[in-house]
Write a structure and sequence with these properties.
With 155 residues, the protein is an alpha+beta fold. It has one domain (7-153): Haem-degrading domain (Beta-Lactamase). The protein has helices spanning 7-16, 24-41, 66-82, 86-95, 100-103, 138-153, and strands spanning 46-51, 54-60, 117-122, 126-134. Helix 2 (24-41) packs across helix 6. The radius of gyration is 14 Å and the shape is globular. The protein starts with 6 loop residues before the first helix and ends with a helix.
């Protein structure tokens, strides 16, 4: 059973999971790693990687649905707007005793601070994109992305 991470733990993930560079080949390799992980777990997810407004990778696995693509877009927009993981943005609101939906004043049909989208941060450049998974409970979506990034970034 996965325990709910604290805001501090989520922020530590973002500080730790930083790229030296992020190329088209990196997007393909990271996306392929996520597909492999999802297949091993029989996870009904869609996977997406965007960089600077361009979709570099997308895969939909058995059991996923068009709604997953809509969730991907909504979660990715949170990363693009706030520069933080979609789960972390939601957690920050929950830690203040409110919800993203109630206090952000943003259209919930456009933005979703639910787990699964994580910033692609490059040293010296900042957040340049997002890697997103949709199809599992939000903490599981977030955890899958973090596990893939940890594996990918470990020399």
């Amino acid at each position: 059973m996965t325990t709910t991470p604290t805001v501090e733990e989520l922020e530590a993930q973002e500080r730790r999971l930083v790229f030296g560079r992020f190329t088209y080949e990196d997007a393909w390799a990271l996306g392929s790693l996520l597909v492999e992980m999802a297949r091993e777990r029989q996870a009904p997810v869609a996977i997406d990687i965007h960089r600077s407004g361009q979709q570099l990778f997308h895969a939909a696995l058995p059991g996923s649905a068009p709604d997953n693509d809509a969730w991907i877009a909504r979660k990715r927009r949170v990363v693009e707007r706030y520069g933080s993981a979609s789960y972390l943005v939601g957690a920050r609101h929950r830690a203040k005793g409110t919800t993203f939906e109630d206090s952000s004043r943003l259209d919930p049909d456009t933005y979703a601070a639910h787990g699964g989208s994580f910033p692609i941060t490059v040293e010296g450049a900042g957040v340049i994109g997002a890697v997103t998974v949709s199809g599992l409970p939000q903490l599981d979506d977030h955890t899958m992305v973090v596990e893939a990034l940890e594996t990918f970034l470990t020399p």
